[in-house]
Design brief:
256 residues; alpha+beta; 4 strands; elongated
Length: 256
């Protein structure tokens, strides 16, 4: 896309209403983003032109875009598809935006981005701890990790209950904010198509059928993993007790 140039500045996109003549621009020499107010002054500087120019200067004095440069730089990093760049945006710009302009629009935006980045970090921490067999680093991580196991297994009913429990129990714990936000995200996802107890019962029966077919096909290891998952996840769930007992019987037969 061809950019309009004003001296060393390359105009990019408008900021605010297009009639405001305020643009995000790139300083070509310093390679830095800035906010630019473009004046339209009629040729000849007639008395009317002078009055218009004076009014434009007054409007410039009232212009406030606190933190626009920091936000623009943060947006560049956030647009990249890697957690390291997102953390750089957090450390270099987002904290600064919130501290310097606590009541501005860009501060609100920065807080939203911080929540998303901390959610990313929390998910990365869970995956890393699982991979290396490490214990969860907090109660929020432990509970979210357990809830996600049900969802990964395909059980949306129990996962939803677990996620709701996280929000109810930890919503006032600031250090667990990322896991509470993750739980809220998953609740919204599951509730967009709500599950039922009958869905869970049907799902577990299908799992038992799948394990039986695997066992008949000489895949005893795969069948054993399904039966053990049912016992470990649902032992104590009264409504699923008959299915758990079937899985336990299959495991006992396998051991014998």
């Amino acid at each position: 896309m061809t950019r309009s140039r004003i001296g060393p500045l390359a105009l990019e996109s408008p900021l605010g209403d297009r009639g405001s003549h305020i643009y995000r621009a790139l300083h070509m020499q310093q390679k830095a983003q800035v906010a630019v107010r473009v004046f339209s002054v009629p040729m000849g500087m007639t008395p009317e032109a002078k009055q218009e120019f004076a009014e434009q200067l007054e409007s410039l004095k009232a212009l406030r875009h606190p933190g626009i440069v920091q936000r623009a730089r943060a947006e560049v990093l956030i647009a990249r598809d890697d957690l390291g760049s997102h953390n750089d945006a957090r450390d270099k710009y987002l904290y600064n935006l919130i501290e310097r302009f606590p009541d501005g629009e860009n501060s609100l935006w920065a807080k939203e981005q911080l929540d998303l980045i901390e959610m990313e970090n929390a998910e990365s921490r869970i995956q890393s701890n699982r991979r290396f067999g490490r214990e969860p680093s907090s109660e929020g991580e432990r509970k979210y990790s357990e809830a996600s196991r049900y969802e990964l297994f395909g059980d949306r009913v129990t996962a939803l209950e677990q996620y709701q429990g996280i929000v109810n129990l930890l919503k006032d714990e600031e250090k667990e904010r990322a896991y509470v936000n993750l739980a809220r995200r998953q609740i919204a996802k599951i509730q967009s198509k709500p599950p039922s107890i009958e869905e869970l019962r049907r799902f577990l029966r299908e799992k038992l059928d799948q394990a039986d077919k695997m066992y008949s096909s000489a895949d005893a290891i795969g069948a054993k993993q399904i039966w053990e998952s049912i016992v470990n996840l649902y032992n104590g769930n009264k409504e699923m007790l008959p299915i758990v007992e079937q899985a336990q019987a299959k495991l006992s037969k396998l051991r014998n």
